[in-house]
Write a structure and sequence with these properties.
single chain, 170 residues, alpha/beta, two-stranded parallel sheet, 20% strand, elongated
Length: 170
């Protein structure tokens, strides 16, 4: 078995390598050799990585790593979060209040939906009770519940959901 030919280009001739690739008339591999002393003149990093319209679920969102991850995601375009924790307490409330204040100071509109999962809550009863109020929540298994919203999800709908959850009798 014969190996495919390898054509090497130094990093300084990167444009030539890409031109060769774009013509699709080469056979084998094209390799860029990068010298140890090479340092790019400019590096262009993306200003956004995350879709500002999507929601991102972060389990353990109130821990140190969860909060840092949320802040990092916000700095790269994410705006909507669902943070979960098993142990919601006053420290968590202060942490999330601090994060929300920071986002307001940075003029970033951010939506964060927090679900505190408690063992006493019957998932099936909760899902069925919400369905009676025309709020569809899906059981994903392993103690995880999900509510999917779409672009037509309005502020009025959101208020109805919040009211139903806040007034829920356990």
């Amino acid at each position: 078995l014969e190996l495919m030919p390898i054509t090497r280009y130094s990093i300084e001739h990167m444009k030539d390598a890409f031109t060769c690739l774009s013509k699709s008339n080469h056979i084998g591999k094209i390799v860029l050799d990068i010298d140890e002393t090479f340092y790019p003149e400019t590096c262009l990093f993306p200003t956004t990585i995350f879709d500002h319209k999507k929601y991102y679920l972060i389990t353990g969102g109130f821990g140190g790593l969860g909060m840092k991850l949320t802040e990092w995601m916000i700095s790269y375009g994410a705006r909507n979060f669902i943070l979960t924790t098993r142990n919601y307490n006053e420290h968590n409330k202060q942490t999330i209040d601090h994060l929300i204040d920071k986002m307001k100071d940075d003029n970033k509109e951010t939506n964060i939906v927090i679900f505190n999962v408690v063992d006493e809550l019957s998932k099936d009863k909760f899902v069925n009770d919400m369905l009676l109020k025309h709020i569809k929540i899906s059981d994903m298994g392993q103690g995880k519940l999900r509510m999917v919203t779409h672009l037509d999800y309005s502020d009025a709908m959101h208020e109805i959901v919040l009211e139903a959850i806040n007034n829920y009798q356990f």
